[in-house]
Specification:
This protein is of the alpha+beta class and 548 residues long. 19% of the residues lie in helices and 34% in strands. The strands form seven sheets. Strands 17, 18, 21, 22, 24, 25 and 28 form a seven-stranded mixed sheet that branches. The protein has a five-stranded mixed sheet with strand order 4-1-8-7-29. A four-stranded antiparallel sheet has the order 3-2-5-6. Strand 26 and strand 27 form a beta hairpin. Helix 6 runs antiparallel to helix 7 and helix 6 crosses helix 11. The radius of gyration is 29 Å and the shape is flat. The N terminus is likely disordered.
Length: 548
């Protein structure tokens, strides 16, 4: 079946992306001979490079614009590393890093996330020896493949339906089927049951055109009405067939009405006319934007880190501590920072990330703080890239005293404050993701629940990773595993928390943690802006050169 009645339809992180490539000022093969360039694209998967495709060869061109389009599936939650190699197909031999395509002119590596977040990037090509190729550049432009993101809002009601019950009136519900060319049927939607009512008013609902009719306005749609029975043996009232083209008449404000026909009665009863009528009162087309629509419209993902420095982590000088810095292998905090942070940083234009700690006594007064900057600069808690966060973490450890308790509400409120200011603008410019790394059970659960409920109304998502082997069962409440979170602040309007114990990923591939915890972010982004009726920005982010 399609989307739930109360849910905002969303498009998840998986999208089809087309990449178009051009180059500028490629090196001459000889002093006066222009190269015959072509491009090979490779993707780094499971520890090795795999060819995605090759462009055509353009003869005698230093500034080629390739017609070939590279199409890839894009996933927000994965680090998708790409390599673009430019070869001179007319050159002799495969020396100096060449291939069967000819000598290598130059190459670059970057992530697909970097490309789609900027829509157009230009980078200097590197020679086979790794040295920059003077003025030679490559430009990659990204475009999401057109897939239908059109939805339709429908609202039906019944009129004088047959009564199937002896002691009360029917409890009707409606099922909608898409009929395929081979006459197989797929259930598209089932309405709620309206009790004891022969003229039921069903709640409006939203389905994608793909689900309803495979985007074919003339495809047959079969609608069947039943009288609900608690035993599951529902009584058949009748049915009718239509098309989306016919339904569209209701988009002008007119009602579309069908006779509900019970075919058994039609055959057996001489004066049978119908078993009532079904009326469509609303047919409203809507465009539901994708996560990539927002990213390519200029939305930035602002990533903030909060690290647990409570005493339960153990003395950082001990090799048994969760904060122990082992020169041979990063601890679990460092692994998580690197895994999740490296993906998020592709979607933040300035690559600067606020990083905080909680549960420690901090200099100079060594009072307990639950939201201190780990670079000890409260006016500017940002670190340069994820590498800067890691360096600040390592410098911070010997200067603080691990203490407690494990209070997370202060840091949630701290990040929620600028998100609240962002909400007031009504623009899709910055969405915040807070990564909390903690080793224990949250001490301020009531306050944390209040903070999450308030944050659910803001452009903010929260990822909590449990470090170590503590009992994290209380985290399931914040995670919404028991239903939408409720607190003294009311009921959360969105599920914005994703919790996972790191121990569940010890034997998983290196990218599994980031893929899991970030997989919900695209949905949460679209849910937030969709619920506010905020469309993607029309101003695309400026193209820029990626750092070398």
């Amino acid at each position: 079946m399609s989307e739930g009645i109360d849910s905002q339809p969303v498009a998840l992180g998986a999208s089809r992306v087309e990449l178009r490539v051009s180059c500028w000022s490629l090196l001459l093969r000889e002093e006066t001979i222009k190269p015959d360039p072509c491009v090979m694209l490779q993707s780094f998967i499971d520890g090795q490079w795999n060819e995605v495709g090759r462009s055509e060869v353009l003869r005698g061109s230093q500034n080629p614009v390739f017609a070939h389009v590279f199409a890839l599936d894009y996933f927000f939650e994965e680090m998708q590393i790409l390599k673009f190699e430019v070869f001179d197909a007319g050159g002799e031999g495969a020396e100096d890093g060449g291939s069967e395509l000819g000598p290598l002119i130059g190459a670059i590596e970057c992530s697909l996330g970097q490309i789609v977040s900027q829509t157009k990037v230009t980078k200097q090509l590197a020679l086979a020896n790794g040295e920059p190729s003077e003025n030679s550049t490559i430009t990659i432009e990204a475009e999401e493949v057109s897939r239908t993101n059109e939805f339709v809002q429908l609202e039906f009601h019944g009129q004088e339906l047959d009564d199937k019950d002896f002691f009360s009136k029917s409890d009707p519900f409606l099922e909608i089927y898409k009929v395929n060319s081979n006459n197989t049927e797929l259930l598209v939607w089932r309405t709620e049951v309206v009790k004891n009512n022969l003229s039921p008013q069903w709640e409006s609902f939203r389905v994608s055109l793909q689900s309803l009719c495979s985007c074919d306005p003339d495809k047959t749609i079969r609608c069947v009405i039943y009288d609900h029975d608690s035993s599951g043996k529902h009584d058949y009232i009748g049915e009718f067939s239509t098309t989306f083209q016919e339904m569209l008449q209701a988009s002008t404000g007119e009602e579309v009405k069908w006779a509900c026909i019970n075919h058994k009665y039609l055959e057996k009863k001489k004066h049978y006319k119908n078993s009532g009528h079904i009326v469509l009162t609303q047919c409203k087309m809507e465009k539901v934007h994708t996560f990539l629509d927002y990213i390519m419209g200029g939305l930035q993902i602002s990533f903030t880190v909060a690290i647990d420095f409570t005493a339960s982590n153990g003395d950082p000088r001990s090799e048994h501590s969760l904060h122990f810095i082992n020169p041979k292998e990063p601890n679990e905090y460092l692994k998580t920072l690197s895994s999740v942070g490296e993906i998020c940083q592709d979607y933040d234009s300035d690559k600067r990330f606020p990083a905080f700690g909680f549960g420690a006594r901090v200099p100079p007064d060594f009072e307990v703080s639950h939201d201190f900057a780990i670079n000890f600069d409260p006016e500017n808690p940002e670190c340069e890239r994820i590498v800067g966060v890691i360096e600040a973490y390592k410098r911070c450890l010997p200067q603080i005293q691990l203490y407690g308790p494990t209070n997370v509400a202060p840091i949630i409120n701290k990040v929620a404050a600028p998100a609240a200011e962002e909400e007031k603008t009504g623009l899709p410019t910055k969405y915040r993701v807070l990564l909390i790394l903690t080793d224990g059970v949250v001490s301020d659960m009531p306050e944390a629940c209040d903070a999450v409920v308030r944050a659910s109304r803001l452009p903010l998502s929260i990822i909590i990773v449990g470090i170590g082997n503590a009992d994290f069962s209380d985290m399931r409440e914040l995670n919404g595993d028991r239903g939408m979170l409720e607190s003294d602040e009311g009921r959360a309007v969105r599920d914005i928390v994703q919790f996972v114990p790191l121990r569940e990923f010890k034997k998983a591939p290196a990218n599994a943690l980031a893929k899991y915890v970030l997989a919900e972010v695209p949905k949460q982004v679209v849910e937030y802006y969709g619920s506010k009726g905020i469309s993607p920005g029309t101003q695309k982010p400026p193209s820029s050169s990626l750092p070398q």
